[in-house]
Specification:
The structure holds two protein chains of two kinds. By secondary structure, chain A is mainly α. Chain A has eleven helices and no strands. In chain A, helix 2 packs antiparallel against helix 9. Chain B has two domains: 91 residues, Beta Polymerase, domain 2 (2-Layer Sandwich); 265 residues, Orthogonal Bundle (Cytochrome-c3 Hydrogenase, chain B), CATH 1.10.645.10. Classes of the chains: A mainly alpha, B alpha+beta.
């Protein structure tokens, strides 16, 4: 029974994240539209776009190699697996033994690597520009993410997400300065990872300012659909991660019944919607920063992660 | 230099004398331009002559030199770089070669492959952008040479929207000419049509009635307001601050609708015609305009506060794309480009025309020369335009709105000049009528001719990602420039 339920939960989770990701993107766009006094497209529009793209012909540049054609699938697969590992509404995932924060960082790194390669593969100026900016950001974002992982792992005694979520939800985990720092740092890294304002503008048409969009400019059809879906998945993953680590209330623990699981799922949806709305409000209130300011911005995340880790060491030493 | 070949500032009301100048006059003028004593207003070609309009800013005088030329003329650009692109356009359109010009490549003509300037150096790479861009903007090619993210050189390639406006003008009647003028650059149709009307009225020495002058000024200020509001929003949107675009777009739309109610066209197109205006302003129209202006005036302080108070936005605009005052002065840059770099030239003030000579307003000037300064000049001009419009609407004189121009007066051909402050800067029109009263030659000079080259200078040393912001803050016209 336990195995069946956890298999079922894992299956539901994998399907759920894919189904939900474009809707979350749609919600963020809708809220942003309302905030700027526009009506905005329906929240299901990203899904419609993806389905439309899947039906369309994929045009590949003459100068593109197999890397360009393979990259969308690698990106999508890596992001999907990463998103499936993060506990959304239940911690008893079948694959939770592998749901390690470090594994998730590595999977996202793999997707980023494939995307940057694809951006450079076509040989256009914009692809190279985007890839070089993405890598510039990644050199700071990835260590920051690892330091956040260390902070959490030190606090919870494991880098495994289900354990962290369990420990965070538990009564013995009080308010800690380090965790606050980790939350801020994780938010900053998530903004950069997802190419959101103030790091990148997902809605821009200005080729020269793009980061993520510049690398995918040459994609079309099913390739673009994969990349769009992966980008949505990544946003959902980031929000889920923040939700499960810092706001794990109501998450279903191993051994809970079906009803608890359903309540947990409803709560999860509410958390994600809230996170998406907060993101939209934040994005409306600030302008994009200069490209060379982004490493400073991510440097804050890096420092906060480092401080969090050090503080935990010190407090443990006492 | 001796200004005797230059005519007086009342060129807008009297026909222009067409005196041929000598080569030595021409080179004296070149030397004065080089020395910065005169400002180049325009340089254009005719069937067998090259003409150059000069401005003496200190004395507030304009003069036009006419140099007969069969195949070539002495280059002005050799002494005065702002003339280079104008000369290349003359060579393309009239086959008159500037002798000794430093740059012999075509400019508006696109028949042969175009060699870009060579670049040499370590780890430089080129980024070609355009002519087709994402988004709804006009076509133009930008060739960036960058070292990493830093722009080492930007080279513009324009002429993609050459429509042959000046060729269409030749032989057309005045009414058709006014229509063509209004379609040279869509966002400045009022300024163009007013400048064209001024030129026609000057050529025929037949000024428009006072009420028509007032209505023209109302249209011109509405155009300025709408475009400045659109620009402020668009500049902020290029820094991914969509809120400002949303707020400004609403105000702009309110103004356009009020203009539509008052004048029957959202942009005020074809209202201004030689001899006056085609449509009188009714009390209902005045009421619609006043309501829209009150809304703009009410919201403006909040927009200023939003811009001023958003640190992340200021971080992008302050110090970005700095244009030096010397370059602005050398190129005679008009509009917000010049005024944000300390060149306080405004045709409405420096060479006033009715009804501005009787109105109170300040010329907004800033010294920063950066994107931020250009945004502030726009904000200040919005404020001034609101003040001007309330003065204009309160003091509308009575009387007719149109006089009949008498083309019969042009027995042996007459010439006139129009110079109007559009939202972008001074729009210059030179019009020559034939004996039959039809247009013999009409030259329209967009302010962008002297702003596009400055964009190349302003972006140097900035990062590539800041180019859209700089470009939007210049907001030069492609269509008006490409003719």
């Amino acid at each position: 029974m336990g195995l069946i339920l956890s298999l079922l939960v894992q299956g539901v989770q994998m399907a759920l994240v894919v189904a939900l990701a474009p809707v979350l993107t749609g919600v963020v766009r809708k809220v942003k539209a309302r905030l700027t006094r526009r009506r905005g497209a329906p929240v299901l529009q990203p899904w419609r776009d993806i389905l439309k793209l899947l039906r369309k012909e994929a045009i590949v540049a003459d100068s593109a190699s197999w890397v360009f054609r393979a990259a969308p699938y690698v990106i999508f697969a890596a992001t999907w697996v990463a998103a499936a590992l993060v506990p959304t509404f239940a911690t008893n995932l079948q694959f939770s033994w592998s749901a390690d924060l470090i594994a998730i960082v590595a999977l996202l790194g793999l997707a980023r690597f494939a995307l940057a390669l694809a951006g450079m593969d076509v040989g256009t100026a914009f692809g190279g520009l985007g890839a070089s900016r993405e890598m510039l950001f990644a050199t700071v974002a990835e260590p920051a993410m690892l330091l956040i992982t260390f902070t959490l792992a030190l606090a919870a005694g494991s880098s495994q997400l289900s354990t962290i979520a369990g420990a965070m939800a538990g009564p013995e985990m009080g308010l800690r300065v380090s965790l606050g720092m980790a939350l801020v740092a994780l938010t900053l890294v998530a903004l950069a990872e997802n190419g959101r304002i103030p790091v990148d503008n997902p809605a821009t048409h200005l080729e020269l300012t793009m980061v993520h969009e510049a690398m995918v400019l040459e994609y079309s059809g099913r390739h673009l659909a994969m990349i769009e879906l992966a980008a949505s998945l990544k946003l959902l993953l980031s929000l889920s991660l923040i939700g499960c680590v810092f706001f794990p209330w109501g998450i279903a623990a191993p051994g809970d019944g079906v009803t608890t699981h359903l309540t947990a799922a409803a709560l999860y949806l509410a958390k994600i919607a809230l996170g998406g709305t907060a993101l939209a409000i934040f994005e409306t209130a600030v302008a994009k920063m200069r490209v060379f300011r982004v490493p400073d911005f991510l440097g804050i995340a890096l420092m906060l992660g480092l401080l969090g880790t050090l503080l935990l060491f010190v407090s443990r030493g006492l | 230099m001796d200004l005797t070949p230059l005519a007086n500032a009342d060129l807008r009301s009297t026909p222009l004398r067409r005196d041929h100048c000598t080569l030595s006059d021409w080179s004296t003028a070149c030397a004065a331009l080089e020395a910065g004593k005169l400002t180049l207003l325009a340089l254009w070609g005719e069937a067998a002559a090259v003409r150059m309009a000069l401005l003496d800013e200190g004395a507030g005088r304009i003069g036009v030199l006419t140099l007969p030329a069969e195949t070539a003329f002495p280059s002005v650009g050799r002494h005065h770089p702002p003339a280079q692109r104008l000369e290349r356009a003359v060579a393309d359109l009239w086959g008159l070669a500037p002798a000794g010009a430093p740059d012999a490549r075509p400019w508006l003509g696109h028949t042969a492959p175009y060699p870009f300037l060579p670049v040499e150096g370590d780890s430089l790479h080129q980024v070609p952008v355009g002519p087709v861009h994402a988004g709804i903007i006009e076509p133009g090619h930008f060739r960036f040479t960058a070292q990493g993210e830093t722009v080492v050189r930007l080279e513009e390639r324009l002429g993609y929207v050459h429509k042959g406006i000046e060729a269409l003008m030749t032989g057309a009647g005045l009414a058709r000419g006014a229509e063509l003028a209004g379609r040279t650059s869509g966002d400045s149709c009022v300024a163009y049509q007013w400048a064209f009307a001024q030129a026609a009225e000057a050529a025929l020495a037949c000024p428009a009635p006072p009420r028509a002058q007032h209505i023209r000024a109302v249209l011109a200020e509405l155009e300025r307001l709408a475009n400045h509001l659109g620009d402020i929003g668009a500049i902020c949107n290029d820094a991914a601050f969509a809120m400002m675009l949303a707020q400004c777009s609403i105000l702009r739309e309110r103004l356009l609708r009020a203009t539509d109610l008052a004048f029957g066209h959202r942009m005020g197109k074809d209202v201004i015609a030689p001899g006056g205006v085609t449509r009188d302003l009714t009390p209902d129209g005045v009421a619609a305009l006043e309501a829209a202006l009150a809304e703009v005036a009410g919201r403006l302080p909040r927009l200023v506060a939003l811009y001023d108070g958003t640190a992340s936005l200021q971080d992008r605009t302050v110090g970005t794309g700095r244009l030096s005052p010397d370059l602005a002065r050398q190129f005679g840059a008009g509009g917000f480009v010049g005024r944000a770099s300390g060149r306080s030239f405004d045709t409405r003030r420096a060479l006033p025309y009715a009804p501005y000579d009787a109105l109170a307003f300040a010329v907004a000037t800033r010294d920063g020369g950066c994107v931020n300064a250009r945004v502030w000049v726009r904000f200040d001009e919005v404020q001034e335009s609101l003040g001007l419009l309330s003065q204009l609407l309160a003091s509308l004189p009575g009387g007719p709105v149109r006089t009949d121009l008498l083309p019969a007066r042009a027995t042996e051909g007459a010439e006139g000049i129009g110079l109007v402050e559009g939202f972008r800067g001074d729009v210059f029109v030179h019009l020559a009528l034939g004996p039959d009263g039809r247009i013999a030659r009409c030259h329209l000079r967009d302010p962008s001719w002297f702003q596009w080259p400055l964009l190349e200078a302003a972006i140097e040393g900035n990062i590539i990602a800041d180019f859209p912001l700089c470009n939007k803050s210049f907001n030069c016209s492609y269509s008006g420039h490409d003719l």
